[in-house]
Amino acid sequence: MFGRKKIVFRCEACSARLIKRTSVLAHKFLRHDSYVCENPMCGATYTGHSELTGIASPSGVPTAHSELPPTPAYQRAQALQAYRESLGDRQLDLIPMGGEPFFPHL
User: Which Pfam family, giving just one, matches this sequence (predicted)?
Assistant: First the structure.
């Protein structure tokens, strides 16, 4: 696993691996990236952007704050957790925390 190089992008001209040469922070959540083809006969260069667009999981730090909006999956998880907490003991689980199935009629 450690011997293989991770290929993020390939050159559209020769299909060789692109290597990130520079990455400049343009904004708190936006970087401008430059890539060069690793094939010396080709040498094509490309530019692009890397951007953080949402928070997928909260920080474990109690005082953490994020300016990014939550992702839809994170919002669903929060809503499901709030729903389960609102049910309290009224919701029966088929598999309780102990791991043994709960079948009251069997």
Answer: Ogr_Delta
